[in-house]
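Long-time lurker, finally posting.

We've been working with U32 family peptidase (Paenibacillus azoreducens) and I want a structural starting point before designing mutants. I don't trust myself to interpret raw outputs, so I'm hoping someone here can both generate the structure tokens and explain anything notable. Sequence follows.
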Amino acid sequence: MSRWFGEKEIELLAPVGTFEIFKEVIQAPCDAVYFGGPAFNMRLMRKGYNFSLEEIAEAVRMAHGLGKKVYVTVNNLLNETEVEGAKEYLRFLEQAGVDALIVQDFAVLSLVQEMGLNLPLHASVMMNVQNLEMVKALQELGVERCVTSREMDLQTARYIHSQTGMELEYFIHGDMCVAHGASCSYSSMVFGMSSSRGKCMKPCRWDYRIKKDGCVYPAEFPLAVKDMYMYENIPELIESGVCSFKIEGRMRDASFVLMLVNSYADAIDRYIADPVGFDRSKDAKHLYENRKRDFSTAYAFGKPGLSNINRRYEGTGKFYSTGRVFSTPTPERELSDQRIDEIRTQLLGVKGAKSAAGAACLAVRVNNMDQARMAIEEGVDELYLSGDVFLPDLPFTREDIQSLCAIKGGTKMYLGLPRMMTELHMEQYRQLLSREKLAIDGLLVTNLGAIHAFKDLGYPMIGDTSLNVYNHLAAKFYGNQGLQRIALSSELTAEHLGEALTYSELPLEMIVHGSPTVMYMEHDLYENTEVLEPIGEEDNRYVDNSVLVLMTDKGENPVYRDRNGRNHLLLSKELNYLPLLRELAEAGVSCFRIEGATYKVSDLQTIIRAYQQALKEEAAPHLEPVYAGYTLGALQFN
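Top reply, 14 upvotes:
Generated this for you. Predicted structure of U32 family peptidase:
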């Protein structure tokens, strides 16, 4: 089955969660379906969902018999113990004849290529495909289709398709996430349940209150976005070059999925038959009356602002057939001596490939010139200038960079890039880096597109945590792309950390102190304080009142707005791995990073000195927390 609008082939792609649902949906007017197998996918939270191996093989036979395609999601991050099982699973999928894999982890891409498997690859939305250079890099790696970032507008999609011819898949209906793809580690930090490994506990759906400037605002569920709805925008989707219209809903029942497939199929077919006389709103009322959440076109036509936030049924569990809510507000776990001892035991005997390569270095990420000058004066080994500068500080200018280079002495200095880079960002940084070579020691790169664009400019590159490296195969992949070192995913549990250190040959870095971003959003929470009337007065407990705070009865999480208007939700507590520094160094961590952006200069100086002392194998001084306390984040969990 295929649909054509002129020379453009259009695919309606339907979700199926179980084989029973598949048997109904495959008979409906969709062109392809996607589902997950028994492991290695992003829907592992619900028992009874996903396909057995036998069901996958039968589903492929049935779909191909109807002239339709089957895509299998192998789209979560692998830990080291899963690699061998993944190889066996990939061989099976090739034999079963699936039409493509939807993948996130570059370990999976590497395995497919190393094993010589005939398995077409589609880049998952969790790869966060965000710019032209990233699409070019994926094309060179053999990827045939990209599921675009949820934040990509249709104008950008059209530009990328026109420049590359890459097949683009776009979400047209269903449950969306408030954070950028693979840019939320909150569930890992609080529950040990990784959102990048198919186990998200959805803290974005909690009932928060917002505080700022001493005022409390009535912004219930401020992170809970509406469902995507593009039913009335079929013409714009086709015109943009999108070839696959993707419905979200692998956790939905058959009747709901069938309603969506039938409605969208009818709309697409009506538009193909009569584009001039196409009635956009025909049967739209039926979809609206049977919606789960309210509807939004999200970022398809630009930033939606607060209109993207849902209140319908939030907190009731009515979205799900089980009727339950995934989780309720939960405090971040406190650092404890017992847990420290347990991790020390787990790390005992772990000897990574780089554990004997010399002393580990100390790196600090800073947000402004005062922090940078102090860090240089303290003699830190490496200094990262943030690419996502938190307001009210301003971006580092060329003059700033040059003045720091003149005084940096033995400190290596790296220019960080924004985590999410649009075409404008790529152009700006290309001009900064190529017009006149900077005297920096390298770049802290955040996405594959930046690696592809800047690797020939002569700057050494270090990979940031946003590259989501969870295993040695992914580390090796980025090493082959030219990275000299890479920061491990902050979602690694203690057990998985030990495994990754054991097998990786590329030098590895870890964030060991500070409050890193655990939810990175295009959505601007600060808008709430600009349009809503306050309902009370209350000061922030740990950060300045100028910083917006998300508050529950379990704690307060600061949210910083960066110079691009993006929001960074941080832990309420600080990571503190000071008691584990020696064991981590012996296990193979090459570089320890302090996330210093939010600290006052004096507080950051105290933290730097404590870590320097510990790295000299001296007893580290006692550190009082600056914020709500200390936590081990994902290392709290096995």
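Before you design anything, note these points.
The longest strand covers residues 8-15.
The domain at 3-176+225-308 is CATH 3.20.20.70 (TIM Barrel).
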